[in-house]
């Protein structure tokens, strides 16, 4: 009875938990999250930072500090760039970036890794990675295929302006467990550096 077991697992606070990006470092809980999303949301994420997004809107609704204009719970779980400035990655177009995901409790479903424009809240270009089925099957992390936990993305070209400033774009890993009907999100902050101009490529 896989489905009922995992449904039960979701209800036991001690084993709540699902996944996040471990490497590069993903957005953590911090003061900016408390200020923009409120203590209830911050505490919910603190108690299990791998847990699902659907638990957060009810927590926010009971908190007068929650400011929907600054805290989009459906983008990076509301986690804020200001809390992750120490971990900004600098990437160039074409760079291959290894990603490591921690899947604490699997729930089979769909997933993708995309660059999101944080002001517009829209995906920039095509998703860099898509699993249209069969993501995170099984009952424990060891059941999950290795290439769903460790993979790499290639930094697209053409983002030198849009994503030049860290915080304007984010790399978001997004996973939806179709049976559990739960969404997981984890975000890496980065800035795109223009490729180095090759000096003296041409000599007269
Ligand atoms: C998530 O929580 C674990 C366990 O408390 C902690 O070791 C890790 O640093 C946290 N990661 C993030 C991105 O918040
Ligand atoms: C990809 O992720 C976004 C969230 O960033 C989600 O809204 C969308 O449905 C996902 N698309 C696919 C094809 O998985
Ligand atoms: Cu669950």
Notes on the protein architecture:
Keywords: Copper, Disulfide bond, Glycoprotein, Metal-binding, Signal. Belongs to the polysaccharide monooxygenase AA13 family. Its cofactor is Cu(2+). The structure is a single chain. By secondary structure, this protein is of the alpha+beta class. The protein has a single domain, classed as Coagulation Factor XIII, Chain A, domain 1. It contains five helices and nine strands; from the N terminus they run αβαααβββββαβββ. The strands form two sheets. Strands 2, 4, 5, 6, 8 and 9 form a six-stranded mixed sheet that branches. It is globular, with a radius of gyration of 18 Å. It starts with a helix and ends in a 12-residue tail after the last strand. It binds 2-acetamido-2-deoxy-beta-D-glucopyranose (NAG) (2 copies) and copper (II) ion (CU). The site of one 2-acetamido-2-deoxy-beta-D-glucopyranose (NAG) has 4 residues, from loops.
From the structure above, extract its key features.
binds 2-acetamido-2-deoxy-beta-D-glucopyranose; Coagulation Factor XIII, Chain A, domain 1; binds copper (II) ion; 9 strands; alpha+beta; 204 residues
